Amino acid sequence: MTIAVSAATGQLGRLVLAALKARGAAPIALARTPARIAGYEARAFDYTAPDAAALAGVEVLVLISSNDFNDRAGQHRSAIAAAKAAGVGRIIYTSVLKGEASPMTLLAADHIATEAALKASGVAWTILRNGWYTENLTGNLGAALDHGALIGAAGEGKYAAAPRADYAEAAAVVALAPGHEGQVYELAGDTAFTMAELAAEVAAQAGKPVAYVNMTQADYAKALEGFGLPAAFAATLAQSDAVVGTAGALYDDSQTLSRLIGRPTVPMAETVRAALA
Q1: pLDDT at position 69
Q2: Which class for 277: exposed (0-12), middle (13-18), buried (19 or more C-beta within 10 A)?
Q3: Which listed residue, 41, 184, 193, 238, has the most CB atoms within 10 A of its CB?
Q4: What confidence tens digit (pLDDT) does each residue in 142-194 have?
Q5: Start and end of every NAD(P)-binding domain (predicted)?
Q6: For residues 176 and 165, what is the distance between their CA atoms, to the nearest angstrom?
C-alpha cells in the first residue's frame, strides 16, 4: 500500500511519517519544500496550488490540516480535488474534536467545511477529529516559570489532551489497516485536566511557584496579541479557550484514541517533563 502524508515538515506530519515507518511502511512525504525532508521519498505539494501529479500511485493520503488560516478550507478542497484527480483511494483528514458540534466556532469552521467537501468528493474517507495537543499548553513553560503564571480563559474547563505522537500513531494505524472507510473518530487523551492542575504539575516538577491565572476572553485575546499573534488568530484561540470552560469543547471520555493505538495515551505529566527538559 502506498501512503502519502501531506504537511510532512510540520510538527504532526513528521510524527505521522515516523509512526508509519516504525510499522514497516515506506510513506511518501509531501511538502512545499521537499528538500527539507530526509529519509523518505519526498514530493512537492503546496496546498495553495496542489498538483495531482505529486499523488501519482498514492492509494492512501493522510491530509493534515493546513496551518495557513488564509482560506484554509479552500486549500483543503483543492487538495481533495487533486487527490480525486490522481485516483487516490482514500483520504484520512485530521479534523477537530466534535466537528460540526464543536462550540469552538471560529477554529472549527474550516474543519466543518472540509469534512463536508470530503464526504461529497466521492473518494473514500476517514476523519480523525483530533482533540488538543498537550504541547499546545506546554510549549511556553519558560515564560510561565519566569512569571510564575500560566494564563488562559478556560476557567475550570477540562482538556482531554494527548501529545502529538499519540495522534500521529492513530493516523498510522488507520492508514495501514482496512475497515476504517467512512468512519469518524473522536480522539482525545484518557485523563482530562484543568489549567490549574497543569500549573500545579509544572510547579511540582520545576520546584518553582506557578499558578493558573484565568482571564476574560477579551483580555486573553489582548494578551495573545501582545505576544505577537495576529489579532484574528488571537481572537480564535481566545474563543476556543473560553468554550473549554463554558461548553466542554475539548473534553471527551470515549477513550477512542487509546483503543486505536492499543495503549493508554501519554499522561500530561510526562509531556510536562519533556517540555521542562
Answers
A1: 84
A2: exposed
A3: 238
A4: 999 999 999 999 999 999 999 999 999 999 999 999 999 999 999 999 999 99
A5: 8-171
A6: 17
Q: What is the DSSP letter of 66?
A: P
Q: Is this prediction's pTM over 0.90?
A: yes
Which amino acid, one-letter code, is at 246?
Answer: T
Q: What is the grid cell recorded at 228?
A: 505577537
Rounded to whole angstroms, how far apart are CA atoms 142 and 272?
11
Q: Cell numbers at residue 267, please?
A: 499522561
Coil, helix or strand at residue 91: strand
Could you tell me how far CA 232 lies from the centroid of its own chain? 19
Q: Is 224 exposed, middle or buried (0-12, 13-18, 19+ CB in 10 A)?
A: buried
User: To which residue does cell 504541547 refer?
Assistant: 135
Domains of the chain: 3-132+161-187+253-265 (3.40.50.720)
Q: Which amino acid is at 210?
A: V
Beta strands in the chain (DSSP E): 3-5, 28-31, 41-44, 60-63, 90-96, 124-130, 149-152, 183-187, 211-214
Beta bridge partners of 162: 133
Contact 250, 132 (CB under 8 A): yes
* Statement: residue 7 has pLDDT above 90: yes
266 is written with which cell numbers? 501519554
pLDDT single digits (tens) 41-94:
999 999 999 999 999 999 999 999 999 888 999 999 999 999 999 999 999 999
Secondary structure tally for the chain: helices H, strands E = 11, 9
